[in-house]
Design a protein that fits this description.
The chain is of the alpha+beta class. It has five helices and five strands; from the N terminus they run βββββααααα. Helix content is 34%, strand content 29%.
């Protein structure tokens, strides 16, 4: 098996098991990959293995090994995966609407991002009470969004901490 590092955008979550963190995800690489036969007809690379919950349109950085599945072909077996936060308003809108944040869909994500723009993630991280400023968001919905956002960040922070101490994604998922 050959080592691979790629960065790209999640285009679909084919399968994800919340119980054990095993996922199968299609990623659109930012740059050409070494093995073009690993791309499907849509130019996507399939990554498989243990990973934290990730959503469509999320930017990820993946390290792993190329493998060849007898039925599904070339894919990357994940050794480590890191979610990268979006920087643009469109990226943030897609990120929030991806299903990672319970209590919000595309319309709600759009209203939040339209109001706060590129500062949206900063607001969610440090001043979620400011969501009251956005028309049509009830205090109950704010609590739901805030709880979900914190849970999502807690998972990411644990994963980053463990990976920063040399613990593989596979083991970090089990520890979490």
């Amino acid at each position: 098996m050959e080592a691979v590092r790629l960065q790209g955008v999640v285009r679909s979550v084919i399968y994800y098991n919340d119980e054990n963190g095993y996922g199968i995800v299609a990623v659109s690489p930012d740059r050409p990959v070494d093995l073009w036969d690993a791309l499907d007809e849509d130019g996507l690379v399939t990554i498989v293995g243990l990973m934290p919950p990730i959503g469509v349109d999320e930017q990820v950085q993946v390290s792993g090994q190329w493998s060849n599945h007898p039925v599904y072909g070339r894919q990357v077996k994940v050794e480590s995966i890191q979610s990268l936060r979006p920087a643009t308003s469109d990226g943030i809108r897609n990120y929030l609407a991806s299903g990672l944040i319970k209590g919000g869909g595309r319309k709600l994500a759009g209203r939040i991002v339209d109001y706060f723009g590129e500062e949206t993630l900063e607001i969610l991280d440090h001043h979620p009470e400011r969501l009251e400023e956005v028309d049509g968001i009830s205090s109950k919905k704010i609590k739901q969004i805030t709880r979900s956002w914190r849970e999502h960040n807690d998972i990411k922070n644990v994963m980053l901490f463990l990976q920063g101490h040399g613990i593989s994604t596979n083991l970090a998922i089990k520890v979490y």
